Input
Amino acid sequence: MFKDLATLWKLIKIYLKGKTPAIAFGFLTALVFALVGLATPYITKFLIDVIFHGQREDLLLPLLFFCGAVLVVMSFTGIISDYVLVNCFERAKLSMRHDLFTRLQKAPFDFLSVQRSGELNYRVFGDTESIETFFSRLLINIPLDLLFSVIIGAIMIGWHFEMAVFVFFVLSLQVLVITGFRKPLLRYALLRKGQSQSLSGFVVERFRNIQLIRALNTEEAEAANFKKGLGELMRLNVRSFMLGRISELSVTVVNNIWSFGILWYGGTLVLAGEITLGTLMAFLLISGMLYPRIASISGAVLSFQDVRASLHRFLEYYQVPPAILERPGATELRVKEGKVVCENLAFGYTPARPVLRGINATFAPGSITAVVGRSGAGKSTLAKLLVRLYDPAAGRILIDDTDIKQVTLRSLRRSVGYLVQGEFLFSGTIWENICYGVNPPGEEAVVAAAKKAAAYDFIMQLPDGFYTRIGEGGMRLSGGEAQRIALARAFLAGYKIVVLDEPTSFIDPQTESAIHNALLALKRTSTVIVIAHRPSTVKIADKILVLAEGRIVEEGLHEELLAKGGVYAAIYAELGEETRGKERLGEYSA
Ligand code: ATP
Output
């Protein structure tokens, strides 16, 4: 527990750095607000004992003005302290979420891919929320509540000792009732949240795979599963609602016991002449002020267990080491020619299963190099090593004789563009997608890039041209269209080296030739490396590298390799004339 408190303290020091004066100011104004609020029982006492009892009508108006002044001071201090403190703590929450997001973007893919859907979301939003709430409890609420309870206790003891003891006794009874109900209420809240999350995950996943569900005729089974989940949620809702009501009722009963108790016990003291009627009323009011303070302290103590869980989850993500580390003193990569050399590259996603075993290859500037091989040969893996999405276990990659591990990641990825296979577009307009990661894009440059990528004509035929929305909530682009948008991005960014992982989806011959023309235009300014899945692509390549069993087994031009009658020829031969150009090259084994 102390370890967790120390960790929380460390986080407070990080995220509330430089905020001490603002927090101190917020705390002081909150204290003034609370102290001024204490005037109410005194005003009541004064009204009954002095004005009513002493028949001092002349004091009525000054008292009214005093009440007005109290209200004004309370409103001001209340609003100021809320504004200052909310700003500080919300800013801390913002920084925590931003930090977590930034760190997670650098986390290893293996780590990210095993996270359940919704989990990332919950940790970035939910856990930071509960940690931030506890920050303010620890720094403001708990000290303020403690201080205030002591002040009220002292005032009550000053008024009448036995009566004060009586009030404390009834209050502790009330706190006991609240805390007794809190645990089961919390348990139900968690169960409800878990069930709701799992049901919403269920809905998202089912509709994502709706085609499969229809094709397999499982709509009814899925609806039954959903109903079962909903039934469980309903049962939890009813139980939790009833428990909440019973807890409220119990608190009301104890509340009444408390007020009647004070009235009864205080009444006997008033009748015996031990205290005045004003004191009794003041007691009633001030003890009403004490209760929320004590409940708040006990609430904070009880919630610590949940905060600890949130803290552990937060730290698990917060401390995940970045997948790729930049060397201290890394320099800026300045590509002159764009020659890429792989020397003895070895890599495996797990040490037990090597994917690449000793790749030696040169990618010449101003040329297109196609990397081919059967499915799973490691082509995409090689592409990922080139932009340091992973680091090789052995060997190195040189760009213009500089090891890419020696340069900053930012400069590397500014020079080497990786156009990923599959979904490489984001929800947004086509314009936004072309300009993604490129700034500031000039309008003419974007249009020119789209033209070079042979994307301009099809874009102009879309309903809103460059401003057509794609992805979620927009229209779907075909594989060939998406690829040309990505190519336009490459032209616009002016990468010196472009690694294109060709999509596996079907592309008609006309689109294919448009893409090839774009690639031929691209090679004038860049080193182009294509992870080729289509037989036609290899024909425009200046060099073909054949990857098998983690090694480059053949290298040359299309005709040369065919004539050689080796692995490449075997892959190519297995493609029937009629399917050639439509099927994936990689699907045919060597
Ligand atoms: P394809 O033509 O089907 O895209 P590829 O030649 O590009 O195949 P890679 O995607 O590089 O092949 O995969 C090479 C091997 O590494 C495969 O056996 C694959 O299962 C494995 N692999 C790929 N990604 C991962 C990963 N993230 N974790 C573990 N293994 C992986």
